[in-house]
Amino acid sequence: MLVEGLDVQPGDTCLSIASAGDNALALLTQDPARVVAIDMSAAQLACLALRVAAYRTLEHHELLELIGSRPSDRRGALYDRCRAALDETPRRFWDAHPDLIARGIGAVGRFERYFRIFRRWVLPWIQSEAAVERLLDGGSPEERRAFYDEHWDHWRWRLVFRVFFSRFVMSRLGREPAFFEQVEGRVAERLLERARYALTELDPADNPYLQWILTGRHQTARPLALRREHFETIRSRLDRLTWAQASLADCLERQDANTIDRFNLSDVFEYVPERRYHALLDQLARVGRPGGRLAYWTLFVPRSRPDSMADRLEPQTAQAEALHAQDRAFFYGDFVLEDVSA
User: Fold this and answer.
1) CA angle, 198 as apex, 215 and 184 as ends, to 5°?
2) What beta strand segments (E) does the chain contain?
3) Rounded distance between C-alpha atoms, residue 324 and residue 337, angstroms
4) How far apart are the C-alpha atoms of 187 and 319, rounded to whole Å?
5) How many C-beta neighbours within 10 Å does residue 325 have?
6) Sheet harboring 288-298: ordered strands across?
7) Is the dihedral of CA 6, 10, 13, 15 positive or negative?
8) What SS3 class is residue 220?
9) Where are the domains of the chain?
10) Distance of alpha carbon 115 from alpha carbon 123, whole angstroms
């Protein structure tokens, strides 16, 4: 979705929120000249650094084991092979967390731990293993809707979902409480409707995020950066990827005007007041090359460029809505594409 939305061209320079690295790595498949990944979290950057080391050192099936996409009892040994390719800071981080290595490095974030609690302790009380397997088999849209209505959408599902994915529980187990400062309204109801859409209108058999949430593995689908057909391409272009610990604001202030073609901004605007969001958009419009593009998600807080910036940023609403309708990371409320005016 991000790759299609950003429409990266060969030779482009991309700025990406690092997160754990999957999207920054996926951008390499589009032949950019450079991808600069930034994040304020040293832990997120350690995740990116280890992924890069794994692409350099391991084979594709071994990468999937280290991530956790496949079962494995040798992740410690796989990490040992990657360790020499790490700089000192991420090496110290991972050396201190062998338990996270053993679990699979794709499962160690706060939100991932939250889903693990749901999968281990909550889901078995709501749905049987057979029901989960049937759901993930997918089927035609009509078959998916019928299964959801007749077997999945019962009172226990709705009740427990509303409790576990409430603002109160999420702010204690899944997200930092500060992330909800800009959020208004009932969080669980919106997520329940998005889950219904993902389980019926989208095919669970083609949804790596849903498979991970419900089983802790990638079964019949994987995120783009983990697909076999992209492994060697990403590996051959790793030297085009750099990363640094920095806020988006600090990075933009240091950047020359008209130098970045594509921006993956993740959901960073979800957590800042509207005035701060507008100030960041102003900087992004300054740094972006004419014809460049911004892509970002929102969870619960509406965000789009204000009318006062109509001469600088042009929304690509139709394309963004079409892509969002197919977004397999279904918990996001909106997807935004905006072009830097020529």
Assistant:
1) 105
2) 13-17, 34-39, 241-245, 260-264, 288-298, 313-315, 334-340
3) 10
4) 26
5) 11
6) 241-245, 34-39, 13-17, 260-264, 288-298, 334-340, 313-315
7) positive
8) coil
9) 110-215
10) 10
Tokens representing 245? 């610990």
Q: What are phi and psi of 326, to 5 degrees?
A: -110, 15
* Angle (nearest 5°) at CA 178 between 175 and 181: 115
Q: Quote the CA–CA distance of 111 and 266 in Å, as a whole number.
A: 15
- The bridge status of strand 313-315 relative to strand 334-340 is antiparallel
Q: At what angle do helices 88-95 and 42-57 cross, to 10 degrees?
A: 100
302: helix, strand or coil: coil
Alpha-carbon distance of 323 to 318, in angstroms, equals 9
Q: How far apart are CA 14 and CA 323, in angstroms?
A: 20
Q: What distance in Å separates the CA atoms of residue 75 and residue 72, rounded to the nearest whole number?
A: 6
92 CB neighbour count, 10 Å cutoff: 12
What 3-state DSSP class applies to 16? Answer: strand
For residues 21 and 18, give the distance between their C-alpha atoms in angstroms, rounded to a whole number. Answer: 5
Q: What is the pTM of this model?
A: 0.93
| Paired residues of 338 in beta bridges | 294, 315
Tokens found for residue 298: 């929102």
- Tell me how far apart the alpha carbons of residues 327 and 334 are, in angstroms, rounded to a whole number: 9
pLDDT in single tens digits along all 342 residues of the chain = 999 999 999 999 999 999 999 999 999 999 999 999 999 999 999 999 999 999 999 999 999 999 999 999 999 999 999 999 999 999 999 999 999 999 999 998 888 888 999 999 999 999 999 999 999 999 999 999 999 999 999 999 999 999 998 888 887 776 666 665 665 667 889 999 999 999 999 999 999 999 999 999 999 999 999 999 999 999 999 999 999 999 999 999 999 999 999 999 999 998 889 999 999 999 999 999 999 999 999 988 889 999 999 999 999 999 999 999 999 988 898 999 999 997
Distance from first CA to last CA of the chain, Å, rounded? 24
